[in-house]
Design goal:
By secondary structure, the chain is of the alpha/beta class. It is built from eight helices and seven strands.
Length: about 230
């Protein structure tokens, strides 16, 4: 299969690139700034890196013009800003939605013509447990991830008759760069609150990507990969 993963230079996206590549898929991954990390992932996996800001529709269309065919699209690229809502700059709010929501829109819109031509395809979005239940001091981020969940459910109904499946992964606390600024004691508390007894890893999410890519009778679902911290 031909697989496209956004935000593929590090963290969850990079692990997704590794696992799809390891099983023999042809993988293309989009990234914005991390050129050295993208080069390292490409050399490790044989995947093809494409520099692209997913919030820019023209850039996304140009990126997809370099990809001959798409069977699986993983919309993983995302950013986070933490802080009280009333202290958030409007530009920060806009940037969150531009990347986390509009970026998903741009990539799905670019891939749909290929899916429609084949009458098949799998779209996997990546939300968050905060998109399901919300989080204090992450209201804007939670709003973007809630929007991704709603978009997933709507598109599953819209695209299902054309043989296209749309599902979403809602990660819990995953040990990536996004958590780098979280105090160690907070990470420990979150681990202790998780029934599984640990925080998640990028590999946990990548395995869910592989499952949803292949699950031919699953669509419109939000798969919580959170160790039970949100039930």
């Amino acid at each position: 299969m031909n697989v496209v993963i956004t935000g593929g230079s590090r963290g969850i996206g990079a692990e997704g690139v590794r696992q799809f590549s390891q099983r023999g898929d042809k993988v293309y991954f989009l990234y914005e700034k991390e050129h050295e990390k993208a080069r390292a992932v490409a050399e490790e996996t044989g995947a093809i890196p494409i520099c692209c800001d997913v919030s820019n529709g023209q850039a996304v269309r140009a990126a997809f013009s370099q990809i001959p065919d798409v069977d699986v699209l993983v919309c993983n690229a995302g950013i986070s800003i933490t802080g009280l809502l009333h202290q958030l700059e409007e530009s920060q709010w806009d940037r969150l939605f531009d990347v986390n929501v509009k970026g998903v829109y741009h990539c799905i819109s670019a891939a749909i013509p290929c899916f429609l031509k084949k009458q098949s395809g799998s779209i996997i979005t990546v939300s968050s447990m905060w998109g399901q239940v919300g989080a204090s001091c992450e209201a804007a981020y939670s709003a973007t991830k809630g929007a991704v969940i709603a978009l997933t459910k709507a598109l599953a109904q819209e695209l299902g008759p054309s043989g296209i499946r749309v599902n979403c992964i809602a990660p819990g606390v995953i040990e990536t760069d996004m958590c780098a600024g979280v105090a160690p004691e907070i990470m420990e508390e979150l681990k202790n609150e998780t029934p599984i007894g640990r925080n998640g890893t990028p590999a946990d999410i990548a395995k869910a990507m592989l499952f949803l890519a292949d699950a031919e009778f699953v669509t419109g679902q939000i798969l919580p990969v959170n160790g039970g911290i949100v039930l």
